[in-house]
Amino acid sequence: MSLPTTVPAAQQVSTLRVDVLYTGGTFGMVDRGDGLGPRTGIGTEIEALLDEFVRETGIAADFRYAEFDQVIDSANADPDTARRIAAHVRSGLGTTPPDGVIVVHGTDTMAYVGARMAFELRDVPMPIVLTGAQVPLGDPGSDARGNLHLALNSIAAQPGPGTFLAFGASLHPAVRASKRHCEDPDGFSTLGDFTPPPTPPALPAARGNGTASPVGLFTVFPGMDSDLLDAALRIYHGGVVLECYGAGTMPMFGSTTIEAVRRATGRGTPVVVITQCDGGAVDLGLYQPGRALLDAGAIGGGDMTREAALAKLAYLDGLGLSHTEMCRWMATNLLGELSNSPSTSWSR
Ligand code: ASP
């Protein structure tokens, strides 16, 4: 199933109930002389935009507005930000849940945070829609109003449960979204096919003490130092998304990089290989470096985006899975983040 690139017309809903959570980002920023920075206390301005939506569409609506305890430039999002926003969203659902939740967020990490929220909130039966802006609210040419209205329209159109990004003219499934332009009002792209499984697989229950280990992302490049990769694999011992070239290749430098991966998987650190390309999927059976990575214990990440792969790795790590379980579930399509079955062997 692919989502339409434009948002369908709003359905007839009697009273649309929407929770709006403001977490920061350019949407509400001001420049106080030292560059754009986050601003708190924008409830009245957001309320005015919500009222405009009601007047323009004739859809009666009931809004609840809240500001997150940390209103930030989303470049400062830490590994726990998405999990805390998801927990806030969940805690607000209560006994009379809204028709949907809008999270106003900075664009820089919206796809990372959105993807993590998609995993955290995968059991929530209503749409969660993140939105933001390239130009602050009130500035000439601002896209803040249009994006907030798009998010509202998306919820009124009842897209079904799931976490989405509403931006420019499109609604993107969070596990497929990536920021691909830093000025254009259509700054996000949906990468790959969004094909969620008809019945989401049941994951093992969380166990352990819930302490998250650090997970990280490492991009390969010509001339990369294998010591740098080795250091990344030691620091991010909870797991590393290895963003390789093309079908899943990287410089082998003899085999120093591969040996660093082998040592990491031997220590129980999952290494998930994805591609730097915007289309196609990793096929670790195709080239010698890919086969060497497989032999060293790496997991093929198929066509997952870097944001979804990192979010999934962190989410699964938080469940306290064993290394074997981690390998299995990283290679399983949970929410539509993975459309091809990644190659786990090279017998072709
Ligand atoms: N640096 C800003 C942020 O991510 C950019 C934006 O919102 O567009 O918070």
Task: Provide a compact summary of the structure.
This protein has 348 residues and is of the alpha/beta class. It has helices at 43-57, 81-91, 110-120, 144-156, 226-235, 256-266, 288-295, 306-318, 323-330, and strands spanning 15-24, 30-31, 36-37, 60-72, 100-104, 127-131, 162-167, 170-173, 177-179, 188-190, 215-219, 239-244, 271-275, 299-300.
Description:
The chain has a six-stranded mixed sheet with strand order 4-1-5-6-7-8, with helices on both faces. The chain has helices at 43-57, 81-91, 110-120, 144-156, 226-235, 256-266, 288-295, 306-318, 323-330; strands spanning 15-24, 30-31, 36-37, 60-72, 100-104, 127-131, 162-167, 170-173, 177-179, 188-190, 215-219, 239-244, 271-275, 299-300. Helix 3 crosses helix 8 (306-318) and helix 5 runs parallel beside helix 6. The chain folds into two domains: 15-190, L-asparaginase, N-terminal domain (Rossmann fold, 3-Layer(aba) Sandwich), CATH 3.40.50.1170; 215-344, Rossmann fold. It starts with 14 loop residues before the first strand and ends in an 18-residue tail after the last helix. It is of the alpha/beta class and 348 residues long. The model is unreliable at 1-5 and 343-348 (pLDDT under 50). Helix 3 links the parallel strand 5 (100-104) and strand 6 (127-131).
Topology, please?
Elements: E1 15-24, E2 30-31, E3 36-37, H1 43-57, E4 60-72, H2 81-91, E5 100-104, H3 110-120, E6 127-131, H4 144-156, E7 162-167, E8 170-173, E9 177-179, E10 188-190, E11 215-219, H5 226-235, E12 239-244, H6 256-266, E13 271-275, H7 288-295, E14 299-300, H8 306-318, H9 323-330
Helix pairs in contact: 2-3, 3-8, 5-6
Residues 24-26, 73-75, 106-108, 132, 134 line the site of aspartic acid.
